[in-house]
């Protein structure tokens, strides 16, 4: 047979696999005729070609059950080691299950037109219940994918106040794959339940849109990082009021049970009970979840944590909890974030919560901690019943709940509702480390001024690195310097009921130091240390000085004021039965009275013993002539002429 002239080859009526066929390679003068069998030619042309469901009998007319043809294609691909299964721009009705078992297959559609009904592109139509349309299972199914496909379910109930969706199973079940199955550019039109993933980590969902009625995505036992991004749930199928309001009571967009380290980003949900629901299973709860951007609208709870020990971080989140077509009224019992479990740990950097009927954040469990770095709450406490923006359950037994703020919260339109509820042992605070005087834990203005904690029972303030105030849990306060070198100290005894009140005054007023408390009569002590004196100054000079002459002060001076018509009094008080009163001028000075000096009055018979009043002068009322005054010489009382009084 010639290698260059096809015309010399013998003619044949029909080609068999063993027949030799001419193949010309090259062109012009360099053309060369080669020989090959038909089988070899077919193998070369069809090698690695994608599978197509029409090759296995799929019709795509929206009426015929194409599931058996799709399963036949899957089985053939299983024998061939997997590959790409293509779907044309048709409607494929599914009325029986399709199982991908231990083989990696990519379901590749031709795209779709978003809408409430089947349209251009590749659509799966589901009209009967009682089966799972697609199941991926077994370790060999890792790497499978669903791409560029839309799915629609029919729901025949009348759209009125009693409406409920038809109870379809999940469209996709990823079960025991132990690894990646991917969904990319998938559309759900009126789907009851979307994607279930169990014991299959590394689930990847990117570009999921549509309307779901009961559950959009549910994941359990995902022990390796999953990724969900670019999700947009909106009333594509129907925006009927009764349908969307049913969703607001019963639909959970994304449910996570035991899920480790999942990444979620660019999420939008319109009309649901919860956007992210963190539940539990026998395997545990979600740990270390990460959310980039989240926006929920017409949702009862944007973040709902039911399980215990859930931990995660959210970068940006915005929620609104209005009744759909309700004129702006909030959903009954709505909360932007609701925690019913215990010991959750959430870190949220930018959070806005709008239209919560009572509390924007409600924490019902115990031991929960939320760190909020920027919080804005609008239109809470719409019942006007005093509900707080943040409600922390009182924990009678266990660890109280706590919210730490990285910045002051911005509250608006809350009908004067408080920031946090009263009657709880939980707390909301701005947290800071203990620090020290030169580098306080909470800095104000500069790095060496602010608040710090010298010990677990004390808090202190510093200015320019110097301690200026310290207060202890025992009620001791020091001011004006480090404790021990301070200028003023305050000590509060246990069960204190009496106190000192220092009051300033307006212009022309008089500042005061006064005692206050529950007792009817409260004294005020001014005490100097050791033998120090108490001095009162005025006009820059000492006006009065009180001094105790060492040892135990048994006797002391008392000054009593008097009401109108009465007589003020200066008297000696103390433990001695008899105590004298002495007026002592300085140096050669004398004691002067600016008015007549009134003497004590006695009769001759009532004069006291002269021995106790040496050099004392008294007035004798029953004396005669010039015998009206008596002076004691220490032995007798004598008249001015020296005679003994008798």
TrEMBL record:
- SUPFAM superfamilies cross-referenced by the UniProt entry: Pectin lyase-like
User: Where would I find the Rhamnogalacturonase A/B/Epimerase-like pectate lyase domain in this sequence?
Assistant: 53-117
Name used for this protein in its record: Rhamnogalacturonase A/B/Epimerase-like pectate lyase domain-containing protein
Q: Which Pfam families match?
A: Pect-lyase_RHGA_epim (PF12708)
Query: Could you tell me which species this protein originates from?
Result: Roseomonas alba
């Amino acid at each position: 047979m010639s290698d260059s002239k096809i015309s010399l080859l013998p003619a044949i009526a029909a080609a068999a696999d063993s027949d030799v066929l001419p193949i010309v390679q090259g062109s012009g003068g360099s053309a060369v005729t080669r020989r090959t069998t038909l089988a070899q030619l077919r193998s070369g042309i069809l090698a690695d070609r994608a599978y197509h469901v029409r090759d296995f009998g799929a019709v795509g007319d929206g009426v015929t059950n194409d599931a058996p043809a799709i399963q036949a294609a899957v089985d053939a691909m299983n024998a061939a080691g997997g590959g790409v299964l293509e779907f044309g721009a048709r409607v494929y009705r599914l009325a029986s299950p399709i199982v991908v078992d231990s083989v990696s297959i990519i379901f590749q559609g031709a795209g779709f037109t978003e809408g409430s009904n089947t349209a251009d592109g590749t659509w799966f139509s589901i009209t009967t219940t009682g089966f799972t349309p697609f199941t991926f299972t077994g370790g060999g199914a890792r790497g499978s994918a669903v791409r560029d496909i839309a799915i629609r379910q029919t729901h025949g109930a009348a759209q009125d106040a009693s409406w409920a969706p038809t109870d379809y199973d999940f469209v996709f079940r990823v079960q025991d794959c132990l690894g990646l199955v991917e969904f990319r550019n998938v559309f759900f039109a009126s789907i009851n339940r979307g994607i279930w993933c169990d014991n299959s980590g590394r689930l990847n969902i990117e570009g999921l849109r549509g309307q779901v009625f009961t559950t959009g995505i549910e994941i359990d036992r995902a022990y390796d990082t999953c990724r969900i991004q670019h999700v947009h749930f909106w009333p594509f199928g129907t925006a009927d009021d009764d349908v969307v309001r049913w969703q607001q009571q019963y639909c959970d967009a994304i449910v996570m049970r035991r899920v480790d380290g999942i990444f979620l980003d660019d999420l939008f949900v319109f009309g649901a009970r919860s956007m992210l629901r963190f539940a539990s299973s026998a395997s545990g709860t979600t740990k270390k979840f990460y959310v980039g951007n989240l926006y929920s609208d017409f949702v009862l709870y944007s973040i709902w944590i039911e399980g215990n020990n859930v931990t995660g971080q959210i970068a940006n989140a915005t929620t609104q909890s209005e009744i759909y077509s309700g004129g702006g009224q909030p959903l009954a019992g709505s909360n932007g974030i609701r925690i019913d479990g215990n010991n959750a740990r959430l870190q949220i950097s930018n959070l806005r919560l709008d239209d919560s009927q009572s509390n924007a954040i409600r924490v019902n469990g115990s031991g929960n901690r939320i760190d909020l770095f920027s919080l804005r709450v609008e239109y809470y406490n719409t019942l006007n019943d005093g509900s707080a923006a943040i409600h922390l359950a009182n924990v009678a037994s266990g660890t109280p709940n706590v919210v730490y703020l990285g910045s002051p919260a911005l509250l608006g339109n809350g009908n004067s509702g408080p920031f946090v509820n009263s009657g709880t042992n939980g707390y909301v605070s701005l947290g800071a480390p203990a620090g020290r005087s030169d580098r306080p834990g909470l800095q104000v203005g500069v790095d060496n001024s602010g608040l710090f904690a010298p010990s677990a029972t004390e808090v202190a303030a510093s200015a320019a690195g110097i301690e200026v105030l310290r207060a202890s849990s025992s009620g001791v306060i020091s001011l004006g310097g480090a404790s021990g070198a301070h200028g003023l100290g305050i000590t509060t005894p246990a069960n204190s009921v009496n106190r000192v009140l220092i009051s300033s005054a307006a212009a022309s007023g008089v500042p005061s130091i006064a005692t206050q408390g529950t007792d009817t009569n409260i004294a005020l002590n001014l005490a100097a240390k050791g033998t120090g004196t108490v001095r009162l100054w005025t006009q820059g000079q000492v006006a009065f000085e009180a001094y105790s002459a060492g040892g135990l002060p048994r006797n002391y001076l008392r000054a009593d004021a008097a009401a109108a018509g009465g007589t003020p009094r200066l008297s000696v008080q103390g433990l001695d039965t008899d105590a004298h009163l002495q007026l002592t001028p300085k140096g050669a000075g004398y004691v002067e009275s600016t008015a007549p000096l009134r003497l004590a009055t006695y009769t001759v018979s009532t004069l006291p013993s002269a021995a106790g009043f040496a050099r004392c002068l008294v007035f004798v009322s029953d004396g005669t002539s010039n015998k009206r005054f008596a002076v004691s010489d220490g032995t007798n009382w004598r008249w001015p002429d020296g005679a003994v009084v008798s």
